[in-house]
Amino acid sequence: EALGPAITIGEILVEIMADAPGLGFLEPLALTGPFPSGAPAIFIDQLARMGASAGIIAAVGADDFGTVNIRRLADDGVDVSAIAIAPQHPTGTAFVRYKPDGGRDFVFNIALSAAGEIHPTEQARALIGRAGHLHLMGTALTIPHAWPVIQYAMDTIRSRGGSFSFDPNVRKELLASPDFRERFAAVLARADVLLPSGDELFAAAPAANEPEAVTKLLDLGISEIVLKRGASGATVFTRAGRYDATAYGVEEIDPTGAGDCFGGAYIACRRLGLPIEQALDYANAAGAIAVTARGPMEGASTRDMLEAFMNNAGRM
Ligand code: ATP
Ligand code: MG
Predict the structure, then answer these.
(1) With CB atoms 3.0 to 4.6 Å apart as the test, which of 4, 86, 100, 166 could cross-link to 114 if both were Cys?
(2) Can you give the pTM of this predicted structure?
(3) Helix, strand, coil percentages in the chain from 3-state DSSP, rounded to 5
(4) Alpha helices, H only, 33-177
(5) Is the CB of 259 under 6 A from ligand 1?
(6) For atom 25 of ligand 1, which residue has the closest CA?
(7) What ipTM score was computed for the predicted complex, to two decimals?
């Protein structure tokens, strides 16, 4: 774990889930929650549970939804010193209902919630000053005040000799905004590891096919491209070659957060010095376990849990 903890910057939310699938929220529904959530929070929780050192720069409200998140992250070993409490704003929320076709309907309160109140606080600067790795999610690029903090983190951690990973994790439509596109390109150009899922590969590198997109990204200076393929597993591409993993066979209960658990496990393994092939195997197992648990962060696993699963599970 060269130079210090892996850190992330981004949204913390609670998720509240409809018990039964259906369309939308237009009548009273049975709901279960709050579950700790937010893609960066899930990622960093999984990374910490693997035994890698971890921290997060984020903001929550002065309310129980904030406390739920801070407690979970702290219990799992994440440095929560740079989670700000924004007393004027409620903690961000996402209400989620699975549709009969497996898609999801959402009601979000993110942009106007405490999740948007990321500022260059003293605690944020201190955490950045001792970090050895930065992980960003595309969603963080949409948080207005967070951008200067992100730039400061990229510069500081890079100048200490640290590394940088990026999970685009965005809807393609966001790239229509010039501001977003500029930030996205700036982040992409500096990433060492890229973790796209499915078509996000082509948002990062417009191309006619997968090999062409991969070549473009390697030429940009990205050394590991970790492509998540849902129930079809995952592939890592490097200059030296490719590594493929077929998915572990599991029953999918709630796919939300699988990509974040996968990413947290992958980066944790790399930080802990494991080779790509092994990191991919752990990550693939972490993603598989994540889809079997209801609630986005509930499927984050310890290294022991992953090893037990990997020893027993069959491949699809
Ligand atoms: P998210 O919705 O969290 O953003 P994502 O789209 O980033 O997810 P996915 O490709 O859906 O990421 O899942 C990440 C990884 O989790 C996959 O590459 C795979 O290793 C594992 N995984 C996902 N779904 C399944 C499944 N149904 N069965 C087994 N493994 C799965
Ligand atoms: Mg994703």
Answers:
(1) 86
(2) 0.97
(3) 40, 25, 35
(4) 39-49, 64-75, 122-129, 146-159
(5) yes
(6) 231
(7) 0.97
